Amino acid sequence: MAINFEQVNFSYGAGTTLAQPILHDINVTIPDGQVTAIVGQTGSGKSTLIQHLNGLLKPTSGRIIIDDFILTNGIKEKQLTGLRARVGMVFQFPENQLFANTVLDDVMYAPINFGYSKREAQIAAKEALKRVHVSEKLWHKSPFELSGGQMRRVAMAGTLASNPDIVVLDEPAAGLDPKGQNELLNIVRDLKSAGKLVVLISHQMDHVIAVADHMIVMNNGRVAAEGTPTEIFNRDLSWFKEVALDLPKAGQFAEKLRQKGRSLSRRPLLLTELAKMLNGDDQHE
Amino acid sequence: MNNIMIGRFVPGDSWIHRLDPRTKMIGTFIFIFVMLWANSWATYAWSAAFVFAMIRLTKQPFKLYWDGLKPIFWLILFTIILQLFFTPGEPVLFQAGPLKITVPGIINAIYVMIRFVLIILMSTILTLTTAPTSIANALESLLKPLKKLHVPVAELALMLSIALRFVPLLMDETQKIMNAQKSRGMSFSTGGPIKRARAIVPLLIPLFVGALQRALDLANAMEVRGFQDATQRTKYRILSYGSEDSKAFAGLFIFSVLFIAIKFFIKY
Question: Mind listing the UniProt keywords for this protein, alphabetically (chain B) (predicted)?
Fold first, then answer.
């Protein structure tokens, strides 16, 4: 079920004089059953990369192997329906995709498109709504009457309802309040424990360290690094400058302390870890 | 989605780009008005020469103009066919029932095609070299006399420039919503016409909701910055008519005089 990118290049308007190359020679593996975070500054190619996962974009050259599906430039639109049923994609601000009269109808849209009967779709929709903690009271309301956080979760349910094996989330926490952000991270954890492969784009390194098992760092359309969050976040400070990446808050705090003359034995990545170290469990001065 | 060329503005620094937008607008109208009197190969050739000279002056690749013609290809084809089959006259080359192809019909069809293409090219010169806001400004300035008749000219021009401003935003939004619904299994390319028409609902509703939301946000943003209608407002870009504009009109005048001369003295 893993995803493999093999020498993938992508340009907008390929073959014309106005071709704009976006992705260069991408070779990465996204492991099965884990949460993979894709990070990098705006314009580094993250969103372009994930749009390849369900064939919204096709590689200009190279190929992407998603389980037993091989996505190349020559693939036909019709062949993609099966892939899209298996790869659920939640875009940035997904609440903009809501359209139906009721929450339930909206969530049933994807399953019906993917060939579920009305009854099956309803069962799947209810399950998905429960999974993202949308209370039953709201199911028959118009999606446009809900609060921002609720709309976001309904939109996520709209993707999860067709029970995809792979879930791709593009900045799912953007614009949510801290409580909403925590709920969202819990949903990501639940998806992982349900055995799904989760791909997550995030600008918040604290979210990455909280949920991700694997990380891909993008810079200028190339993969700048790949590895576990612990490996990546223990790199040199100069490297972080180079790829315009932040450390998690605990790491930033520790760096500031070091500049003031108090060094810690290693770079803490979680706030609890930092607190423990400062409390004297880790005195090496 | 990204190749819609009608009304696209390409910034540049050519002589035509720098002209007062009012000059370009009036000039385009004068040219079209004069060209509608063309009735011979010589007059069409002279008009075409003028348009191509203008295109050279904009310093933009001809491909941009070609792209501008593409969307109206079917319209041109349709009028050509009408002209071709329904022009009466002698000699008749081919006849099938009420349809007949005559020599004047063929000539007319070619004339109409040239006329169409030249008008589109000329207006493309206008939109390609003039920012949408400048066009709105020019329109406001030209319609000023209507203020005496209590026509809200400034408000109309503002509405026009806001509408133009929203076009790229809405195109962007359409693309995003389309991606989202495609990911949920939406398909435009399968099923009968009714199914296809219904497939567009999940695209249109979010688009309308988004557009209304944007409009409300913009209205609020304008209001908190003290916007009131029916007041005298100053402009960020002031339109200025200069000596270059006079030269442009002089050029157009020479074109028109020669056009009339050719029309009356060259019989081809």
Answer: Cell membrane, Membrane, Transmembrane, Transmembrane helix, Transport
Beta-ladder partners of A239: none
Assess whether B125 and B203 both reside in one domain.
no
Summarised one tens digit per residue, pLDDT across range B129-186 is 888 888 888 888 898 888 888 888 888 888 888 887 788 788 889 999 999 999 998 8
Interface confidence: ipTM more than 0.90: no
**Residue B40 shares a structural domain with residue B122:** yes
* Three-state DSSP state, B100: strand
Distance CA A137, CA B240 (A): 63
To probe the interface with B, which of A18, A57, A113 has the most B CB atoms within 10 Å?
A113
Domain range enclosing B206 = 153-229
Give this prediction's pTM. 0.76
Which residue ranges make up each domain of chain A?
A: 247-285
Contact between B183 and A158 using a beta-carbon 8 Å cutoff: no
| A81 contact B CB<8A | yes
Contact predicate B1/B203, CB 8 Å: no
Number of domains composing chain B: 2
Indicate if B104 and B213 belong to the same structural domain.
no
Whether the Cβ atoms of residue A274 and residue A252 lie closer than 8 Å to each other: no
Is the same domain home to B65 and B23? yes
Q: Which residue of B has its CA nearest to A109?
A: B184
Cβ A85–B184 below 8 Å, yes or no? no
Establish whether A171 is a catalytic residue.
yes
Give the closest of A77, A144, A158 to B184, CB-based.
A158
Catalytic residue among A171, A226, A273, A285: A171
CB A218 within 8 A of CB A40: yes
